[in-house]
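Ex. 9. Protein: Cytosine permease.
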Amino acid sequence: MSTNDKFALEIIEPSERKSSNWDMFATWVAANANNGTWFIGGVIAACGFGGAIGHLTWSSVIAYLTLAGIGYIGYKVGATTMGAARASFGIRGSWVPSVMNMVMYIGWTAVNTFIAATSVSILLNELLGWPVWGEPGGEKGIVVGIIVMSVLHLLSVSTGANSVRIIERVGVVLVFVFAIWETIAVFQQVSFSEIVSWTPPTDQAMASGVAVDKLAAFNLGWVTCAADFTRFAKKPAGSHVIPFVGAFIGVFWFALVGLVATISIAITSGTYDPNNSDPSTIASKLGLGAVALIVVILTSMTANAVNLMAAGSSLTNIATKLRLTPALWIVTLAACLVTFIPLIIGSFLDSFTLFLDYIGCALGPVTAIMLTDFFLRNHADYSRRDLTAEGGRFWYASGINWIALGCWLLGVVLYVALGKVPFLTATVGATFPNMIIIAAVYWALMRAVHGEPAKD
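Predicted C-alpha cells for Cytosine permease:
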C-alpha cells in the first residue's frame, strides 16, 4: 500500500474552488443564524441587557479573529481544519482533535435538532392536539420531531458539499426574514427602555467570566471547521475577512433576538427562565403561528448543514478511505441518536450547558496550538506533501507530535483550574487566558525540542 493510500488527504486546488464571497458570507451568517444562537442569547440574559451585549461583543470579536486565522490556513493549504491539524499534532496525532471535533459537531447538530423538534411538537399540538414537550405525554411529539428533522438532514447532505452550498444560499434568506419578523414582534410586546432596565433575579444572575466562557465556547465551536469551507473560497478575503464579518453579524443579531425575547417574556410573565430563549417557545408565546415554527425548522437545516459537513470532514481525516458523502450519512445518523440525550437527562438547558463546558475545555487549546504552529512557527507556510508523507516533516514520532498532545492535555486541566479562580470568574473567564498560556507553552517547547522549522 502506498503512503498516499494510507494517509489520504483531499487538497482543493485553486482551480477547483467555486465558493464566491457571497457563498462564504451566507455560510457563516447561516452558521450562527440558528436556534442555538437564540438560546445562548437567552442564557446570557442572566447578566442583564448591558452586560450581555458587552460580553457578546468583545468575546465574539476575539473568537472570530481565531476563526479568520484558521480560515486563512484552509485557503493557503487547501485542506480541511483537521487535515491541517496534521502539521501541528502529527499525521496520526491529528486523529485526537478529529475525534473531538466530530463529537462536537454531532453535538451541535443534536442541539439544533432538539430545538427544531420542539417546533415540530408544537405544530403537532396545534394540528392533532398532542401534548407539547414539558407536559405529560409530550415525549411523543419530540420523538416524532427528532425523526422528521433527521430525515430532512439526511436529504440536505445527500450530495455532499454541493447540497450543503444550496441549503445555505436558500436558507439564509428565510432566516433573515424570520429574524426581522421576530424582532418586530418582540418590540411590540415591550419597549426597548423596559428591556434595557430589566435586571435578572439575584439568585439567577450570572458572573461575567461565566458568561464569557459560555460565549467563547459557543463561538469557538465554529473555529475548528473554518478551513473545511474556506478551502473552497475563490478569493483570499473569502477565507478570513468575509467569514469574520458573516459569523459576527450572525451571532450578534441572533443572540440579540434571543436576549431581548427572553427578557420580554420575563417582563410580561414575571418569571425569568433561560429555557424561554428557545425560538420555538418564543414563536409560540409571541403568537407568531405555524409559519414561524416551520421557519425555525428550516433554520435548523441551514445551521446543521455546516455542522454535519464539519463532522463528516473530521471523520474522513480518521477513516481516510471513507468518501465525504457516506461520512455525512454516518454522522447524521449518529446525531439523531445523540438528540435523544435531553429526553434521558430531563433538561435541555442542563445538557446544553454541559456541552458548552466540553467545547471550551477541549477545543480552545486545539485552536491555540494550530494558530501558533502555522503563523509563528511555520511563518504561514505548510508543505502540502508533508501533510501526507510518512517519515516527513509532520511525522514526528510514529506520526504523533507528543508536545502538541501534551499541551492539549495541559490546556484541558488548566481550563478547569482557571475556571475556579474567583478573579477570572468575575471578569474575563478561563477560556482566553488558557489559550494564551497554551500557545506560549507550545511555542517554547517546540522551539526547545525541535528548533526552527526547516525551510522547504
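Check your answer against this statement. Residues 95-128 form the longest helix (34 residues).
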